[in-house]
Design goal:
The chain is mostly helical and about 210 residues long. It folds into two domains: about 55 residues, Arc Repressor Mutant, subunit A (Orthogonal Bundle); about 150 residues, Tetracycline Repressor, domain 2, CATH 1.10.357. The protein has eleven helices and no strands.
Length: about 210
């Protein structure tokens, strides 16, 4: 069903605001970001941001939740009819990688958040993160029950997957800056969802498979 014109405009406006906010938070962190700058980049006034989303805290939470929450929903939808735990695990890893590539500003935002000890991490975002952890927990437990996986700590496996992706994504400027780095490192694809995610899958499966 087509959206009414007012709803469509709101949807487009919100997407533009979130895109601008992701860029500003990525560059300046939460403390350094200014709503004025976000409004300027989004081509709206501050009142529009407060009307559609809320204050800076809510905007920051929405930027992260828009990716993490959507990732959780996508993984849940894609694996619901899959019987093979190994395939479910691959789907989860690939879905996260694709969303990280589609939203590259989120990696530095999350890196800053981890470094600050989650200082500005809202409960909504924490719930989104642990939704993914619980999905992963279910996959791993199913694999153990079927004799495919060994027993592991799901949260550590989650950190291995997401930590690798965030660190890899944020290392791109460093890899491009130093000419003395080996060509094999400088020429690595900046995208995760290509050859890189295949390598991450291999490492994770090696860690969990019997």
């Amino acid at each position: 069903m087509d959206l009414p014109s007012s709803a469509l405009k709101k949807s487009v406006t919100v997407k533009r605001i979130l895109k601008a906010a992701a860029s500003v938070f990525s560059e300046s962190g939460f403390s350094g970001a200014r709503v004025d700058e976000i409004a300027k980049r989004a081509g709206v006034n501050k009142a529009m941001i407060y009307y559609h989303i809320g204050d800076k805290e809510k905007l920051y939470a929405e930027v992260i939740s828009n990716v993490i929450g959507n990732t959780a929903e996508m993984i849940a939808g894609k694996i619901k009819d899959i019987q093979d735990p190994e395939e479910k695990l691959r789907i989860g890893i690939r879905t996260f990688a694709r969303n990280m590539d589609d939203n590259p500003q989120v990696a530095p935002v999350m890196m800053r958040e981890v470094a600050s000890g989650g200082k500005h991490l809202s409960e909504v975002v924490a719930r989104d993160i642990f939704h993914i952890v619980n999905l992963l927990k279910g996959i791993l437990e199913e694999g153990v029950d079927k004799g495919i996986f060994i027993e592991t700590v799901p949260f550590l496996i989650y950190l291995m997957v997401v930590g690798a992706m965030i660190t890899y994504k944020t290392s791109a400027p460093i890899r491009a800056r130093y000419r003395w780095l080996p060509a094999s490192i400088r020429k690595l694809d900046n995208r995760i969802s290509g050859n890189i995610v295949v390598e991450i899958e291999k490492l994770i499966l090696k860690a969990v498979k019997k």
